[in-house]
User: What shape does this take?
Amino acid sequence: MVFPLLGQAVFPDLLVSVIGLAAAGLTTFSFTPQMVRAYRTKSMGDVFRYLMDMFATGTALWMAYGIFKGDLVIIGANATATAFNLILLHMKIEYRTKSAKVV
Assistant: This one.
């Protein structure tokens, strides 16, 4: 198959798989540095709650979409991203509660 923008023949299935896996990996693990930082500092004050709510909702919807389409990459990536985001949300609530009790 020839892609007009690329101007050359490529293996579309392989290319699509590589792009999908790269996107899944990057978006799934994008919150990992924040999780590590929050765990070390026990602080989530600088993380906007609505961002986390919207991201968790979005990844849950993507996961549902993946289930309907039967796409394991979409399901796996978004299930993991949703879980990571829910962990961050728990940390935000837990650390806010602890800091409120201390002060």
About this structure: The mean pLDDT is 82. The chain has one domain: 2-102.
